[in-house]
Amino acid sequence: MDHPVLKQARKCAEQIAKCEEIIRFRVAEEQVNQSDSVQQLIVQIKKKQKELVHAKHYHKHEHLKQIEQNLVDMNERLDRLPIVMEYQQSQVAANDLIQMIQQIIGDTVSQKIEVEVGNPVESGCGSGGSCGCS
């Protein structure tokens, strides 16, 4: 049996999935995943990262600097692609929306629950049980 609050949470999740920010993110994510140029660059970056690990392991310091610079250049090239920029911007917007929703839920629930404030327990569990704290 489903708790009524869980049913409402599912309805809320469905509404969130229909928000412009979430739709925009999903579209951008799909475009990035289907872009051959983006995927090829990601594969190249992963290969270069493996080279970096190998160079570190075998203490190839000069080669290491060159690989690190290659990685910086490749990541900058990836980040400058319009499709990737759109993906990153839409991801930030979607995350902001979700964080605001979490904050609203947290604040609303906190206002409804009385929380004892002050006199924090210095040590122990605070129950005065077998550990002897109070």
Low-confidence stretches: none
Radius of gyration: 25 Å
H and E string = HHHHH
Shape: extended
What is the CATH first-level class name? Mainly Alpha
CATH homology superfamily? YheA/YmcA-like
Distance between the termini: 40 Å
Number of domains: 1
How large is the share of residues in beta strands? under 5%
Largest sheet: none
Helical content band: over 70%
Strand count: 0
Class by alpha and beta content: mainly alpha
Q: Which fold name fills CATH's third level, the topology?
A: YheA-like fold
Global mean pLDDT: 88
In DSSP terms (H or I, runs of 4 or more residues), the helix count works out at: 5
Which architecture per CATH?
Up-down Bundle
Pfam families: Com_YlbF
InterPro entries: Bact_com_dev_regulator, Biofilm_formation_YmcA, Com_YlbF, YheA/YmcA-like_dom_sf
Protein name: YlbF family regulator
